[in-house]
Amino acid sequence: MTGLLDHMRTHNTPPRLLAALRALVRKDTLWLIALAALVGVLAGGVVSLMTAATFLAHHLLAPESGRLSGLATVNPVRALLVPTCGGLLLGLTSLYLARKTRFHPADPIEANALHGGRMSFRDSLILAGQTILSNGCGASLGLEAGFSQLGAAFGSRIGRQLRMHRADVRLLVGCGAAGAIGAAFDAPLAGAFYAFELIIGSYTFTALAPVALAAICGIGVVHLTGTVLPPVWVATPQGIPLLAYFPIILLGVFAGLVGVMLMRGVTLTEYTFQRLPLPVWLRPALGGLLVGGLAIISPSVLSSGHMAMRAGLISSPPFMLALGLLGLKALASAISIGSGFRGGLFFASLYLGVLTGAVFAGALAPLAVLPVSVCTIVGMCALAVAVIGGPMTMIFLALETTGSLPLTGAVVVSAIVSSMTVRRTFGYSFATWRFHLRGENIRSGVDVGWMRTLTVERMMRTEVATFPATETVQAARIAFPNQTPRYIILCDEQNHYKGLVENVLFHANRVPETTPLTELVAADDLALTPALSLSTAIDTFERLARPALAVVDDDNHILGLLSERYVLRRYAEELERTRRELAGEKYRV
């Protein structure tokens, strides 16, 4: 604090104060923790404001009600009209954004994995508004996507404004997501490990204090504003028999398969909407109409399903009812995402998991091995692990929800089994599956962006030895009598690339002097382009087993040379830098 006061006395203008704050944050880890707390407070404020806004919107569909999924009945006219109008408004808004602005919001996972934590605050704000509109009109999606998006955007904006190190910006993005998810569920451990598993991509001791503090601060804000739900009391057994773990394992497998079917169903529904002869902006209206029709059958399909989930935990529905609700909710969620509504499947997967557990308990009822309450909790967490991809997040959420250590042990088993089932049968969580459909091969927020920014153009050597491709071995020996340079690039009169020849090859005694140099070029010779990434260059070297490759432009003009040894050295250096960042050594030289 003394250092801050000294800086304030010597830097009495806003730009200088900002520069002073940048220096303090970079020099002292305690100031980074303080920034994490600030990000957590902002994320908690986001949760409070977005929750209040959706409550107001829900009054259009069901006056004098808070959460739609807890309704016993809903007015059929409102059920059809409000989601349809909401979808139409969302479609028109998306059409305007597509024509007037560049709207390409980066998900927190994608931002941390590929862009060093860089997120557009404007795009995140628009996305949060679209999420409020989608959830507010009754689309069967949760608010957590908007919560984490805007909370992480605050962290990204603060980190970039202070010109912090790449690793610190990524950490603040994780803090924003932790504060948002922790506040949404009133669960600090679940919020913290959501950030570690999904947003940051790894757990480190140095990141524990800022991430945990951000989650706690976010929870504090929602408690102060009164937007947190009261705790749910679930009857849990004092202990779980050893033989009961066999059906728990089966439940984990079942929940994993249900999660895979849900993710496949979302993709199929999205493909179906794309094939319809409708303009893109009209698809959400059709989706809203279909969801409204399902809501007439059961209002529990509306919105995120939070109240329906709590009701299912307190009093589990019978087998046939649970099976019907499971199909309705899964179909409503798939239609909502496939038609273009904004939102996430975190909240929805919890309710679907409760129904999955109830269905499993009903099928297992003749054996009477597991209580229904155990099946619903275990199913809730197992299905959420399958969809979200965060085992520790759901394990801690179960512990913080129930306070039961024996039940948490069962959740651990089911979460591991569910995760392994999805990995072996599908390979992706919902978020990473969506990235895969877009062509992005990322599975978490682990920083791999440096492999894309480190391109061939940045690594190649531009000072290269070129020689006419029409010459013979004798001419090359005269022009290059020594063993340097190691590689000779052959070219024509227009500097077009014709091949790469190693010096020792044309100096070999077995090669006649009259041999044309082009005959020494390997049959599988290939040149790199400057835009290729580090990972692509490494794959090319491994496939061709060549020690060096030329670099050419689109017109086949020679630009430079890149050796495999240098590429591997740069790769090792970046891995070592990443290791130091994880160990908290990023400021050392």
From TrEMBL:
Predominant cellular place of this UniProt entry's protein: membrane
Gene3D superfamilies documented for this protein: CBS-domain, Clc chloride channel
Localization in the cell: Membrane
GO cellular component terms attached to this protein's record: chloride channel complex
Topological relation to the membrane, as annotated: Multi-pass membrane protein
A Pfam family that the UniProt record links to this protein: CBS
Entry keywords, A to Z: CBS domain, Chloride, Chloride channel, Ion channel, Ion transport, Membrane, Transmembrane, Transmembrane helix, Transport
Stored PROSITE patterns: CBS
Domain of life: Bacteria
Domain CBS stretches: 517-577
Residue stretches spanning the membrane: 30-57, 77-98, 171-196, 208-230, 242-266, 286-307, 319-339, 345-370, 377-399, 405-422
GO MF entries: chloride channel activity
PANTHER family: CHLORIDE CHANNEL PROTEIN CLC-E (PTHR43427:SF6)
Protein name: Chloride channel protein
Gene source species: Acetobacter cerevisiae
Lineage, top ranks: Bacteria, Pseudomonadati, Pseudomonadota, Alphaproteobacteria, Acetobacterales
